[in-house]
Write a structure and sequence with these properties.
This protein is mainly α and 752 residues long. Helices cover 62% and strands 4% of the residues. The longest helix has 33 residues.
């Protein structure tokens, strides 16, 4: 018989696997849907930042608050519109625009008809004595100076010659034809007495438009339509075309004083033409070749220099090639990816919930985009005003996620902002110093003036840092001090704005500052008042637990105020069935005496769910609801579990006792503050049954409960270390010893 060892079948061998390496673990995480979603959100945010900051183009290379240390010369050829030359060209265009005049030709036609009518009346008399003398005087040319008036016989003779010439065969038809020809030009062009004072257009030509017409226009020379010129033309034409000079002179003598002015300036149409001409006017721009000096060294930049810098910058942007834009885009996106990688990694280490909770992550990413957009807007609005959104961002993240995370993300967003606005290392140092000063002071917000103090501290830091940096950069003292004061003013304004925005920040990020916790922990809160009325014993228990837990939280550096307010509300669920809890029972019997242990356990455990439901109905913050749900964790309701175990031992046929049925539903404490409250609640309840609560007995009680909770794994998920558990225990011992301190026994007073 062989006693040697037998070979184990291949199928029964135990398989050992090495833990995955770093890259394998990374690949496994990347395959998880939640991780992929968060990476996609970060990528989308990086692309949005690239679009907001116009990452394909470089920023402006000049700042109005900087005094150049050397002469600034043109790098890229550009042109500047010459405003003075353009204004002169527009004035010239308005001056040369042709004015429009409305022409009333009907007045000349009527004048021609009146002339023929008066001629007919004049020649109708056969003798001079029968002639209307006033009418004859109208047809009499003015006498030359020194010439005597004609006698009656001479006038008789003149009239006879005139009548004979007009009444000769065919003379009247010839006269009428001549008048039609003579009046043709004035009827077509019009007559102008002179240019009106409001005529500020072309003085050599004008456009004639028949009255009431909008289509036909005739351009004429001003000299051709002036009344004296028209009169001279009429006289020449009459002399040339009529057979008798005497008739021509007498017709002109009647006509000259009656010539009407038929042209009137159309102001609206003329102004419209002038405006159009001015709009179409052009002037040669000023040309700046490379090497031309734009600004002198050591001189402040004024509006003219800044305008030239902006024109050169726009020309540089227009000249950029697609390859240059693509290369800069890749560099900017690479920087953003690096910032998101480093920032996300350390944010996960510092504040895991910030990455794990998708709504909080989305809120932070949106805040980053909003801050960057505000930086760009404020930077264009006023010098150094970009410190306002950066300070608001740092204070917001400090309130929502803690100071360490705020410092990390503020450094990243400051770098992005400085690159986006074209700042330098000095700008980054000043902005980051101001933001860091505000974050380091913002450890808690217990009163409304705290944020003003934070803004003031940031102002002092910004002022001193700005002076130091600008001095190292060689900037003059007076502009440096002025810039530093401006930066300090913006910092104070940011603190004031944060005071107003604090409630919104708390609501959006779902956090509670000490200020809101103080308001929530007011004893006049409706839930606490209802707890006093229904379950006064539970209320007194909550007040005592709050005092114990607050001191213990301070011992480990936790949020003591949060623990205190959480302790106020942790047992509000007991007010629905107050008589089932020992602290609210009077001299009567215990209601659990009539219930089975399992049923009593259900009643006791129910106060956790009832309390959470009440808290949600009254809109309590989630951080307070967490205390209600976690202050018992998954601990065992030992009293009723032991009763059930005793009954099981007495009845061999009874089923095994399911321990899970006698445990609270949990979850276990998820924060150090919740772990502190669990210990304080358990210790305070247990200390009430001590017959003589001496310091030694209190110490043993605290040690026993602490070890029991540790052994039960209740602190596995809250991050409490053994050292911190020890500090909590020491604090609870001191507090309970003070509560149950010994008193001097006074002798009984004797009655008088």
């Amino acid at each position: 018989m062989s006693t040697g060892s037998q070979k184990r079948p291949r199928g029964r061998r135990v398989a050992f696997e090495l833990p995955p390496g770093r890259w394998a673990a990374l690949l496994a995480n990347l395959k998880r849907g939640g991780v992929v979603l968060r990476l996609a959100l970060c990528l989308a945010t990086a692309l949005a930042l690239w679009a907001i900051t116009r990452g394909w183009n470089p920023p402006r290379g000049f700042r109005p608050d900087r005094i150049p240390s050397r002469d600034v010369v043109v790098r890229t050829y550009f042109e500047q519109p010459d405003d003075e030359a353009l204004q002169e060209a527009q004035r010239e265009a308005r001056r040369l625009a042709i004015a429009v005049y409305d022409h009333n030709a009907a007045a000349l036609l009527q004048l021609q008809a009146e002339l023929l009518n008066d001629l007919s009346r004049l020649i109708a008399a056969e003798e001079f004595t029968a002639v209307d003398q006033s009418l004859w005087r109208d047809f009499s040319p003015p006498l030359a100076e020194g010439t005597p008036k004609p006698t009656a016989d001479e006038q008789q003779e003149q009239y006879g010659r005139f009548r004979s010439a007009v009444t000769a065969e065919g003379a009247q038809e010839k006269l009428k034809q001549t008048l039609d020809e003579v009046f043709a030009a004035p009827i077509n062009q019009g007559i102008l007495d002179g240019l009106p004072t409001e005529h500020d257009a072309n003085t050599e030509r004008l456009d004639v438009r028949p009255l009431g017409s909008t289509d036909f226009e005739l351009t004429v020379a001003v000299g051709d339509v002036l009344i004296d010129s028209v009169a001279n033309g009429l006289q020449r034409s009459l002399t040339q075309k009529l057979p008798s000079i005497d008739v021509a002179d007498r017709v002109f003598a009647w006509l000259r004083p009656r010539l009407p002015v038929t042209l009137r300036l159309n102001m609206r149409e003329t102004r419209s033409r002038q405006d159009q001409a001015a709009a179409e006017a052009k002037a040669d721009p000023k040309r700046f070749e490379p090497g031309v000096k734009l600004a002198d060294a050591g001189q402040p930049l004024g509006e003219p220099e800044l305008e030239l810098f902006e024109l050169e910058f726009q020309q540089e942007l227009a000249a950029r090639t697609l390859d240059q834009r693509a290369r800069r885009s890749m560099a900017v996106l690479g920087m953003y990816a690096a910032l998101f990688t480093v920032g996300g990694f350390f944010a996960y280490r510092l504040e895991p919930d910030l990455v794990r909770q998708l709504p909080r992550l989305v809120t932070v990413l949106v805040t980053i985009l909003a801050t960057t957009a505000c930086v760009l807007v404020t930077h264009g609005y006023h010098t150094q005003a970009e410190v306002i959104p950066l300070l608001l961002f740092g204070m917001t993240i400090a309130v929502a996620a803690g100071q360490e995370t705020a410092l990390l993300l503020s450094a990243a967003i400051t770098l992005v902002s400085v690159v986006a606005v074209g700042g330098d290392l000095g700008d980054a140092v000043v902005l980051l110093a101001a933001t860091t000063g505000a974050i380091l002071v913002l450890d808690s917000v217990r009163n409304r003036s705290k944020l003003l103090v934070v803004g003031s501290v940031a102002a002092v830091v910004a002022f001193l840092t700005s002076i130091g940096v600008q001095t190292l950069m060689g900037q003059p003292l007076v502009p440096t001090v002025r810039l530093a004061l401006t930066l300090a003013l913006w910092s104070v304004i940011a603190g004031s704005l944060m005071t107003v925005l604090l409630p919104l920040v708390e609501r959006v990020f779902g956090v509670q500052t000490d200020l809101s916790l103080l308001e929530l922990g007011d004893p006049s809160h409706p839930l606490l008042q209802e707890l006093i009325r229904r379950a006064p014993g539970t209320y007194n228990h909550s007040i005592t637990v709050a005092s114990l837990a607050e001191a213990a939280a301070e011992a480990i550096g936790g949020r003591s105020l949060l623990v205190r307010v959480g302790a106020y509300f942790h047992d509000i669920g007991k007010m629905l069935k107050p008589g089932y809890f020992i602290e609210n029972q009077g001299q009567g019997g215990n209601r659990h005496d009539t219930l089975a242990p399992a049923m009593s356990t259900l009643v006791i455990i129910a106060h956790v769910k009832d309390g959470a439901d009440l808290a949600r109905q009254r809109k309590l913050p989630e951080c307070i609801i967490d205390f209600i749900q976690q202050h018992h964790g998954t601990t065992l309701v030992e009293y009723f579990y032991r009763q059930e175990t005793v009954k099981r031992d007495a009845d061999p046929d009874a089923a095994e006792v399911d321990e899970s049925s006698f445990r609270y539903p949990g979850p276990k404490p998820q924060s150090k503050e919740a772990g502190v409250l669990m210990l304080a609640d358990a210790v305070e309840s247990a200390s009430r049954v001590l017959v003589e609560p001496t310091p030694a007995r209190i110490e043993n009680l605290v040690e026993e409960i602490s070890q029991k909770r540790l052994a039960d794994g209740q602190f596995d998920e809250c991050g409490l270390t053994l050292e911190e558990v020890r500090k909590i225990g020491d604090s609870l011992i001191k507090s309970l010893t003070a509560v149950y301190h010994g008193r001097v026994k006074y002798p009984d007073q004797e009655t008088a």
